[in-house]
């Protein structure tokens, strides 16, 4: 249920209070926030706090009846969209910026085999929202009424298997096409008409299974390119025709490639876990081919994403449990900082790791440095660690200087949903709960 803003809520041993605030004014209406903002992890907001030491972010509102899930919130037309699962059935929830529930709609079966709940993030476009369930069904709904426009079972229609932890892709909109990755041998990546769901083109890719990745689009080369990471290959596909332009072999232990590649100035960053680290490619021949520029095996971020701020990459490793600053152009490790440790005054958080990724069974646990999710806005890094800390740090090649932190104590399950920033709010989803914190100056 939505909790009143007038209720004083103790959310940590540090005594953070959720107090009444004036209704949020929507200053960025028309802005669309999808997977990691615009798929880069960069949020184009200004006027945010640069330190939380003296003035920690206040909890504006929260809602704790989403059900199970790990998908992030999305925003369009001043409305917040997020998914959750209850009793095996997925639902869409729609909120205004003050946390009032405007609409709710069930859509069908959701993932219930391990790490239960929703996966991919909703992609808004025009008057519609698009998403893919963990069971591989792609949906299109009207934003305001939540009327179902069309749906398609990608795995059945395109003869593709589901993957160990369920389809986790956030669909990509390119013009009138919605791009998705069934991962079939023949129909590897497909483009559907976003208005009807009809097939526009099908690409065989490299015939490799899906790998939890959400694709990205490059329109600054001579040819328009969709870049997607599959189980063993990163592929570049002509956005108009589905033709495979190039491929790059990159595999890891599981295989899992959950991080959307980053593109800037003709260069394409791939980062993944399980000791394969990060690879930088350069697009050549107008985007029709690639060449490798550098590799850095230390930055092995698995699914928390990294960001590019200026000429540097910031993010955490996975097996290499450090926080890194890497030179975008050379791959040089500028600095590495041992994992974040929860201060004693904020209380302890049990950290766990499992090798039983098909079941989620805990094989062993102990205190270790953290890893996590990194996003950025206004020159600052917003870090959500797997131990439940929200940390603010300046994005600087001079060092890793923490400017404040607080614990996320509400919600259930793992701290693995990617937060977003919108209109001066930091929106965090953890399991059954979505929370909004005030991060304005």
Describe this structure in words.
The structure is a single chain. The protein has one domain (36-438): YVTN repeat-like/Quinoprotein amine dehydrogenase (Methylamine Dehydrogenase, Chain H, 7 Propeller). A 5-stranded mixed beta sheet has the order 1-27-28-29-30. Strands 2-33-32-31 form a 4-stranded antiparallel beta sheet, with no helix packed on it. The chain is mainly β and 441 residues long. The protein has helices spanning 36-39, 154-157, and strands at 42-43, 58-63, 74-76, 79-86, 89-95, 101-109, 123-125, 128-132, 137-142, 148-153, 172-174, 177-180, 189-193, 199-203, 216-218, 225-229, 233-238, 244-249, 262-264, 267-271, 278-284, 289-296, 307-309, 312-316, 322-327, 333-338, 372-377, 380-385, 389-394, 402-407, 420-422, 425-430, 433-438. It has 2 helices and 33 strands.
List the helices and strands and how they pair.
Layout (H helix, E strand, L loop, with lengths): L35 H4 L2 E2 L14 E6 L10 E3 L2 E8 L2 E7 L5 E9 L13 E3 L2 E5 L4 E6 L5 E6 H4 L14 E3 L2 E4 L8 E5 L5 E5 L12 E3 L6 E5 L3 E6 L5 E6 L12 E3 L2 E5 L6 E7 L4 E8 L10 E3 L2 E5 L5 E6 L5 E6 L33 E6 L2 E6 L3 E6 L7 E6 L12 E3 L2 E6 L2 E6 L3
Parallel strand pairs: 1-27
Antiparallel strand pairs: 2-33, 3-4, 4-5, 5-6, 7-8, 8-9, 9-10, 11-12, 12-13, 13-14, 15-16, 16-17, 17-18, 19-20, 20-21, 21-22, 23-24, 24-25, 25-26, 27-28, 28-29, 29-30, 31-32, 32-33
């Amino acid at each position: 249920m939505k909790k009143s803003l007038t209720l004083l809520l103790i959310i940590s041993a540090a005594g953070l209070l959720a107090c009444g605030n004036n209704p949020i004014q929507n200053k960025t209406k028309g802005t669309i926030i999808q997977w990691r903002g615009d798929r880069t992890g960069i949020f184009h907001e200004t006027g945010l706090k640069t330190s939380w030491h003296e003035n920690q972010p206040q909890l504006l509102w929260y809602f704790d009846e989403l059900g199970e899930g790990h998908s992030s919130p999305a925003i369009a037309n001043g409305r917040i969209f997020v998914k959750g699962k209850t009793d095996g059935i997925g639902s869409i929830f729609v909120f205004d910026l003050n946390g009032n529930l405007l609409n709710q709609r069930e859509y069908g079966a959701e993932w219930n085999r391990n790490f239960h709940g929703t996966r991919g993030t909703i992609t808004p476009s025009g008057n519609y929202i698009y998403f893919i369930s963990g069971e591989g069904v792609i949906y299109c709904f009207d934003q305001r009424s939540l009327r179902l426009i069309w749906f398609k079972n990608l795995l059945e229609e395109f003869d593709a298997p589901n993957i160990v932890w369920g389809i986790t892709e956030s669909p990509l909109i390119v013009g009138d096409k919605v791009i998705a990755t069934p991962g079939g041998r023949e129909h590897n990546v497909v483009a559907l008409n976003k208005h009807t769901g009809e097939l526009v083109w099908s690409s065989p890719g490299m015939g490799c299974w899906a790998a939890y990745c959400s694709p990205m689009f490059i329109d600054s080369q001579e040819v328009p390119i969709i870049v997607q990471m599959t189980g063993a290959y990163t592929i570049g596909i002509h956005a108009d025709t589905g033709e495979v332009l190039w491929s790059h072999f990159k595999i890891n232990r599981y295989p899992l490639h959950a991080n959307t590649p980053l593109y800037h100035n003709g260069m394409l960053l791939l980062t993944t876990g399980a000791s394969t680290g990060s690879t930088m490619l350069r697009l050549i021949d107008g985007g029709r081919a690639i060449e490798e520029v550098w590799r850095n095996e230390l930055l092995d971020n698995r699914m928390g994403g990294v960001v590019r701020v200026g000429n540097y990459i910031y993010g955490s490793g996975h097996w290499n449990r450090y926080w890194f600053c890497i030179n975008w152009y050379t791959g040089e490790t500028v600095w590495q900082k041992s994992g974040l440790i929860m201060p004693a005054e904020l209380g302890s958080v049990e950290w766990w790791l499992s090798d039983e990724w098909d079941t989620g069974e805990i094989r062993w646990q102990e205190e270790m440095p953290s890893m996590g999710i990194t996003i950025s806005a206004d020159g600052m890094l917003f870090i959500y660690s797997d131990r439940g800390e929200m940390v603010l740090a300046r994005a600087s090649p001079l060092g890793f200087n923490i400017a404040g932190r607080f614990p996320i104590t509400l919600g259930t399950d793992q701290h693995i949903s990617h937060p977003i920033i919108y209109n001066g709010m930091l929106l965090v989803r953890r399991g059954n709960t979505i929370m909004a914190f005030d991060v304005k100056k």
